[in-house]
Amino acid sequence: MIEVIKHTLPNGLKLLIHQDYSTPIASFNLLYNVGAKDEHPEKTGFAHLFEHLMFGGSVNIPVYDEPLERVGGENNAFTNNDITNYYLTLPVENIETAFWLESDRMLSLAFTKKSLDVQRNVVVEEFNQRYLNQPYGEVWLHLRPLAYKAHPYMWATIGKSPEHIKSATLTDVKNFFYSHYAPNNAILCIAGPVEPNAIIELTYKWFGPIEKREVIERKLPKEPTQTSPRKLEIERDVPFNAIYKAYHMCKRNHADFPATDLMSDLLSNGKSARLYQRLVKEKQLFSNVNAYITGDIDEGLFIITGQLYPTTTYEQAEIAINEEISVLQNEPVSAYELEKVQNKFESNFTFEETSVLNKAMNLAFYELLGDANSINLEVQKYRSVTPEHIQTIAQKILKEDNCSTLYYKSNQNK
Asked: Is the backbone of residue 263 left (phi > 0), alpha (psi -120 to 50) or beta?
């Protein structure tokens, strides 16, 4: 049982406190309810650019890392399509340094041309290195717009094009900041050997004076139901042909989410899973194969992907994948097979929660989903999944009419 104390400041900042005396280290996690899905279609990549800009100096603190390192702290951040998350760990006796640093960044960034130029170049270079110049790196730049036609999940967190970042102006980034970075659009979670009243006092001291902001109301278009198969073929300088099949699935808070997640584990969680055993080991059609979910807050994707052996045709690959899907749809999984993936989920989930930082991150995320306390119900939700539920999900979503398929062809196989 992970216990959490909740408090909301008058300016709308949500505060979560979790006491954990197993370590002298405190974790400070600040989640902003803004991600790539909140960007303008012609100005994508801004949420990720902001993750970088937040380390370029704030209004009263020109260099972020130095004061933190002096008190033995570490920090990092990540952005995805739904959220932007900043996290720090430091000795608990120095935790006020984290409040000082993060409240100043929330108050205002320095917004200098130099900082924008530097971080813009960093992000463009990252776009080139990780996406455009890396084998299979651009998959999501093609698969997302193939699968999504209305919802802003149609572009990756990095953005549609480096040109969107190159053309970002100081006015653009200021507007984005003040429209999304606000106490009333954030969740702060402190975990560690802390005294709740002291943490509440520090939160009021450092974040209390920051006024509420006019956060842009989120009005995202609903993705229409896909009613026919979609297919895209591209050819690149990569060593093997690869296939990516994306099926629309439920949102994160939906009752079907645990069953859908477990279905992906049944197919490919480890070398004893179905796809590896049958398509890699027995039939030797793929060199590797995988199934996973994107886990998005809104309706996400169930992905099946693999790299083909040079002797395997795309037709053979499709037939083999569809045969495994057909088995899932027509035959309930055995109680033993289901229990095995449920046990693995519980083991991983429980182990992850031994980390104070992970608890701080996850509590903030579950609070965004609706209630931080629901983290304690997660294992039971997965334990409650039945073979019949998984069979129903397979019949519902693993259909060609609901699938977008990308053939990522190697030009080295000619």
From this structure: alpha
Q: Backbone dihedral region of 128: left (phi > 0), alpha (psi from -120 to 50 degrees) or beta?
A: alpha
Phi and psi angles of residue 292, each rounded to the nearest 5 degrees, phi first: -160, 170
Determine phi and psi for 299, rounding to 5 degrees.
-55, 125
Query: Per-residue pLDDT tens for 163-198?
Result: 999 999 999 999 999 999 999 999 999 999 999 999
What is the 3-state secondary structure of 378-395? HHHHHHCCCHHHHHHHHH
Burial of 141 (0-12, 13-18, 19+ CB in 10 A): middle
Asked whether 57 and 64 are in contact (CB, 8 A), the reply is: yes
Burial pattern 310-319, b for ≥16 Cβ within 10 A else e, equals eebeeeebee
226 closest CA partner among 406, 397, 37: 397
β partners of residue 254 = none
- pTM recorded for the entire structure: 0.95
